[in-house]
Amino acid sequence: MNKFLPTVAVTASILLPFAASAEDRDFRVGLITPPVHVWNQEVDAMGETLGEMSDGRMSVTAFPSGQLGSEGTMLQQLQTGALDMAWLTTAELTLRVPDMSALHAPFLVTNIEDAARVLRSEEAREILDELPAATGSVGLCYAMTGMRQLLTKEPITSAEDLDGLRFRITPAPPIQTFFEMFGAAPAPMPLTQVYDALANGQIDAIDMDHESIINFGYYDHATNMMETNHHLFGMVALVSGRVWAELSAEDKVIVQEAGQKHCDQTIDRFVSEEANKLERLQAIEGISVTEDVGPEFFGDIVERWDAEWSERTPYVERLRALVASF
Ligand code: BEZ
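Above: the input record for the complex with benzoic acid. Below: its predicted structure, written as tokens.
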């Protein structure tokens, strides 16, 4: 009896972790967005899809609102295997994968339907292939959070009014270039800090999408919205490379297909809901929306931005050519 128990314990301690990793998986998924965001809803739905496709072996636990830290921190956690999955902005990934900056080219597209076509293109897909070497994680698919608009505390009537404004931007070099080129003072800051920074006057304006403006209520402190659609704002569903390496070939297919399904649903939802979100914003008392502000408002900024960023990545020209072919 005394001899039997330790044998069972040792056997179990050798076999159980192996059995657990081959059979059951609760994927921890990190996001910077709050539970109300479409991304978070689709991550939860992805958990259900994974459960169905794996006969209940796979599930998801989401960590929303930057609970695990900034997107940069989550990317490091993916690299070490401390985090299994994350839905991160393409903006964050530009810091490791310069080619991804081309997705943030100003006025690459001027409507959300074309943004979806870019994110579903072969060219964009190729950029995902760079992720394992550059970040230690696997990029399953793209989605997005809509097109970006300018929300300011003071009304803007000309490009000169933007001069010197402290503009919150998502930390990313290609976005920073755009704001510097029109004379603003970009203030890179994570999503989780934006509301307070607007409320306490640390910043004068923000670069943001309809979904987040509605979710966070940024119009409490900045009531002037310019409908610029100046860049698309992408997302990549990532899996830790270490976790990916542990999955069987069959489980990799399940994870890939489930991820793709919910990336696609996310894109489709943003495309179909974008106009309605604009209407909801227009209906909010006190908000003033200036529609159809095109690239001409910013002078020759597209040419200048392209000249600088074409030196850093061939995808600027490739994606411009792609969009020209639509
Ligand atoms: C942002 O940094 O502005 C952002 C990040 C994720 C979703 C939406 C917005």
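Notes for the reader.
The longest strand covers residues 137-152.
The CA atoms of residues 164 and 184 lie 4 Å apart.
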